[in-house]
């Protein structure tokens, strides 16, 4: 059972990817094309991709995706471009990160982009057609870096020159076009869940100012399984192949001095950083989204951004949660509008000028959150209950974008058991079961689940469990959630479609039956 019947995803677009980089790990490709239209045209972008993308029109951020689907199936997002479209020519730009490694977060499937721009139903621009989207390889993102965590893919590190992003807003900007090949046809399914909310949020306070020191290699560095475990079953780059080890570099920049300033920070305020200076900003509460800001530097600068949900001894411990909560930017002299490609979770962010000096202004987080969480209303005479409700709502906003996640930070994984309780919360807060339906579809549609015993369901999904690890009782949470889902939705069609998969699961457990 799917919701794809008679759905027209694309009229002319075909899936493509740069010819020479079809299975390379941690490759980012850029695609762009010009569309000419009336100001009042209903301009939309239809897009499917692997692994992840973000899209722009005339340099304006439009969206990030896709909604995650199961093995062999790709969800199609539709973005309204009309608000930022001009009368006449409009430049549509798309960045696609092809990670091509296994994780609990996104699937290890060949990278591609299939995209089409329409105006009032007519296809104006498409991938894989003559005079369609042109492509380039975006080499600014450092390829051979460590994983962000055991569960997620790669950290973000960049080597930038001023004007590196002009190609997204200026059709005359240099664009080293590369040849693409058409990939295998994709099985496309609807997004199925509401589009995310991308509200820009700003720090409230500069909490700490201070200095770091640069020390020689200390020898005893943090060594997580995400660094040491790379091999045939666990994707990434081995330590000997890395351009640098970001977690080691940060370990060699310990705090020399710091002072609590608790200075209010307005949206347009700047943070001035001399060499080896840092500032820690407070968002007020945990937020999840894309970290951004405008950086001005007059000489070469090495800038780090570290972040976490709490402070330890008034400092950010970017390794506290078993992941490398950090961004790395090598910047030549110039002005840069920076924004992370990946979403992260934080309350505190620490900006460090390890080399050079810079001014960072307009620091923000572009939220990546559920847009329907504000529908529910709750008010009591007890302010403590009101605060608990709003904290729960905020937790839901950040955990439920395209599926039910256990956390929006270290894993961003769709775990069973967590989903049982989040299904209840989703119905209470939004009055809908759309995310839950998509969550179940992800388990329904694949032919099977590689590396797991016949009949067993993955403990979290979409994910690649190449090591064969699974939690059998988590699959039983799936069964009882399915029963509650029927009560919430009345969706008998999905229940009946799921029946063979559930019976296969029971067959798996049959061998363990005993007198207890």
Kindly summarize this structure in a few lines.
The protein is of the alpha+beta class. The chain contains seven helices and 23 strands.
Q: How would you explain this protein's 3D organization?
A:
The chain is of the alpha+beta class and 516 residues long. It contains 7 helices and 23 strands. A hairpin with a 2-residue loop joins strand 8 (112-119) and strand 9.
Key structural traits:
516 residues; alpha+beta; 7 helices; 17% helix
Instruction: Detail the poorly predicted runs.
Output: 1-7
Biggest beta sheet attributes? 11 strands, mixed
- DSSP strand content: 25-35%
The radius of gyration computed from the alpha-carbon positions, rounded to a whole number of angstroms, is 23 Å
Distance between the termini: 36 Å
Helical/strand content category: alpha+beta
Per DSSP, the total helix count is 7
- Overall pLDDT: 96
H-E string: EEEEEEEEEEEEEEEHHEEEEEEEEHHHHH
Shape: globular
> Which percent range fits the helix content?
10-25%
- The strand count comes to 23
């Amino acid at each position: 059972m799917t919701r794809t019947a008679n759905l027209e995803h694309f009229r002319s677009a075909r899936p493509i990817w740069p010819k020479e980089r079809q299975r390379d790990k941690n490759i980012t490709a850029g695609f762009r094309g010009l569309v000419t239209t009336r100001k009042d045209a209903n301009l939309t972008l239809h897009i499917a991709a692997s692994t992840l993308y973000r899209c722009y029109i005339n340099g304006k951020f439009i969206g990030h995706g896709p909604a995650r689907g199961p093995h062999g199936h790709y969800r199609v997002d539709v973005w309204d471009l009309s608000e930022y479209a001009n009368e006449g020519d409009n430049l549509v730009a798309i960045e696609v990160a092809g990670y091509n490694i296994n994780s609990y977060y996104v699937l290890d499937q060949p990278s591609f982009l299939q995209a089409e721009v329409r105006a009032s139903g007519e296809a104006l621009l498409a991938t894989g057609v003559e005079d369609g989207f042109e492509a380039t390889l975006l080499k600014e993102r450092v390829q051979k870096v460590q994983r962000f965590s055991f569960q997620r893919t790669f950290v973000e590190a960049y080597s930038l020159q001023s004007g590196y992003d002009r190609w997204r807003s200026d059709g005359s900007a240099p664009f080293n076009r590369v040849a693409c090949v058409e990939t295998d046809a994709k099985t496309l399914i609807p997004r199925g869940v509401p589009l995310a909310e991308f509200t820009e949020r700003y720090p409230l306070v500069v909490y700490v100012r201070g200095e770091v020191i640069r020390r020689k290699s200390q020898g005893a560095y943090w060594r997580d399984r995400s660094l040491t475990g790379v091999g045939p079953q666990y994707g990434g780059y081995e330590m000997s192949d890395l351009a640098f080890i970001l977690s080691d570099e940060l370990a060699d920049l310990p705090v020399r001095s710091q002072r609590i300033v608790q200075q209010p920070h307005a949206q347009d305020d700047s943070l001035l950083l001399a060499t080896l200076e840092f500032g820690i900003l407070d968002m007020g509460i945990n937020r999840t989204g894309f970290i951004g800001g405008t950086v001005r530097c007059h000489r070469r600068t090495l800038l780090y951004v570290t972040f976490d949900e709490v402070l330890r001894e008034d400092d950010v411990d970017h390794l506290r949660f078993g992941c490398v909560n950090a961004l790395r930017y090598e910047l030549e002299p110039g002005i840069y509008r920076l924004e992370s490609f990946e979403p992260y979770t934080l309350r505190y962010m620490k900006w460090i000028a390890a080399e050079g000096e810079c001014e960072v202004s307009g620091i923000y987080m572009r939220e990546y959150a559920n847009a329907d969480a504000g529908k529910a209303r709750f008010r009591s005479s007890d302010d403590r209950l009101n605060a608990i409700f709003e904290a729960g709502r905020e937790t839901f906003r950040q955990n439920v974008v395209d599926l039910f996640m256990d956390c929006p930070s270290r894993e961003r994984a769709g775990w069973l058991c967590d989903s049982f309780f989040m299904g209840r919360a989703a119905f209470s807060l939004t009055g809908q079961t759309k995310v839950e339906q998509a969550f179940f579809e992800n388990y329904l549609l694949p032919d099977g689940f590689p590396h797991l015993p016949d009949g067993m369901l993955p403990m979290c999904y979409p994910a690649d469990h190449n090591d064969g690890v699974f939690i059998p009782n988590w699959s039983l949470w799936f069964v009882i959630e399915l029963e509650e889902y029927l009560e919430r939705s009345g969706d008998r069609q999905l229940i009946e479609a799921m029946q063979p998969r559930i019976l296969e699961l029971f067959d798996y457990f049959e061998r363990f039956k005993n007198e207890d």
